[in-house]
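quick one
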Amino acid sequence: MKLNYSLVTRRTFLNTLFGGWIASFFLGSLYAVWRGAFPTLGKEPDFVVLPKPADYLDIPTNSTKAFAWGGKLGYIFKRSDNTVVALKGVCSHMECNIVYKPADRKFYCPCHKGWFDEYGKNIEGPPPKPLEFFEYRVEDNKLIVFKKGIKVELPKA
Ligand code: FES
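structure w/ FE2/S2 (inorganic) cluster:
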């Protein structure tokens, strides 16, 4: 059956088009302001360069030192056997920040009560996989922490 008139009037069509344009413009502007206010939020670098390596590497046994891994948390961690490792300080479940509990020698995620041993293995709670570890090296009195398999070359001064 063919109608002799349109179900959508010209006014409705133009109002919908204009409303959609206004909504797109508003949401786009809001997103731009959000990204401008929090440029590193959620971003992860391939490496970070930290000054004063001794501040991170000469920490007491069985302790951590936090650093900014882009917009996330990173830790330098000296295990009870004195090995020093670098790791991402977020849980493998839903990326909440983890904390180290020296008395238990474990990392704890307060969001859903997840636990990791000092080697990063998920041992209790919902975390589905181990913590992510990084590599590091000291160069020109800087501590370079980088993702495994990434080649980092600093510009020569
Ligand atoms: S986010 Fe860590 S246990 Fe859920």
